[in-house]
């Protein structure tokens, strides 16, 4: 299966899959139900209208369900169904794709015979595992990843699989776990809610599936199954494929599932798993629950009326939080001076912004983060939420950084004559390593990588001549 282009939306990912792969996905009732829950309401309406019609329906019958003024949404719904290969258009009728229709009916009527909704354990777990324990496990594992991303010094670091995934996804960069640092994409990742963060990592996990010798369809089946499981219920491994059993090792590290040990024959989905396929409305409620369960993770509180940052026109900043994660994120672009029990104070300075810019964080991302997490008192002032002088200055500091670009390399000068200079610089240009040239002064600058080739050329050709 071809690896789709990097996406942060599961809907976009699914639309990029070829038809044969989608047909394999539609063979699972749990997967069909999960995909259905991810669709916009009008797409769901059209699917339900066609679900029990074996002969198909006329397009005008579907349009009759659409109220006036929603023509654009109707066209978008049909386009979504076509992109997912969910409808067959023959003559004057439209029918639901047969495999999807059969699986969806089984999901709704309890006719699933493939165990796609998991197999609950029929024996009691000797170790007490309740919802509170699962939330604590999810909290601990997910916060470990976020702490690692923002550079908080912790007693332990994520496992190699997590570090590799963060690096592969472009959220962090470095040669080892000890010198990894957050990237531009990583900071944007922190602006997402918990569900968005989880899917961002899982989509990259899917992209790596073939390298890990996993069947991407089996991976998707398992992820969608997790979204339909009951929080607090333990499930048996008996219905899982070899690929899905391999996934448990990684999903434990993300906090999506809990297993007492790797050899355990049962697993528990956490709240991170059971909210994977919630609709937009339920997602907001679930994210609020995750805010309590996952503590004060920066992305968990964003966008749900829990702003904590006050920014003044003199660049002073006050953040009403005691979360180490939120404080670590602020420290990426602000100079923090004082910390109290439930507040930190600091200032946005030229040096702190330049440090962020050098780490790949953009001015727009800093502004977006401050906007998302602005305190309610700042929002009462009306738009703009942030002081315009501060916003403009942050952007100017970025422009200031972009005026000059440093390149490591070597300067060549003091040639014996014009022939020696012309011959050497022409060769350097052919290699594409010339960064700067001043012909009048007989000097030019090459990249670090091109230096040795130019030196060898001078020794071999010029001096020999």
Largest sheet: 4 strands, antiparallel
- Give the terminus-to-terminus CA distance: 57 Å
Sum up the overall morphology in one term. Answer: globular
Number of discrete helical segments: 23
Contiguous low-pLDDT stretches (5 residues minimum) are 1-7, 280-305
Radius of gyration: 28 Å
Helical percentage: 40-55%
Fold and architecture overview:
- The protein has 465 residues and is α+β, with helices and mostly antiparallel strands.
- The protein has helices at residues 10-15, 19-25, 29-38, 41-51, 59-63, 71-83, 98-109, 131-150, 160-168, 184-190, 194-207, 216-226, 242-254, 271-274, 280-293, 298-301, 324-330, 350-358, 363-372, 376-379, 388-402, 418-431, 451-462; strands spanning 87-90, 93-96, 172-173, 181-182, 235-236, 257-258, 266-269, 309-311, 316-319, 335-339, 344-347, 409-412, 434-438, 443-447.
- The strands form five sheets. A four-stranded antiparallel beta sheet has the order 8-9-11-10, with no helix packed on it. A three-stranded antiparallel beta sheet has the order 5-7-6.
- A hairpin with a 7-residue loop joins strand 6 (257-258) and strand 7.
- Helix 22 (418-431) packs across helix 23.
- The longest helix has 20 residues, at 131-150.
- The chain is globular.
List keywords for this structure.
about 50% helix; alpha+beta; single chain; about 475 residues; 23 helices; 14 strands; 3-stranded antiparallel sheet; 4-stranded antiparallel sheet
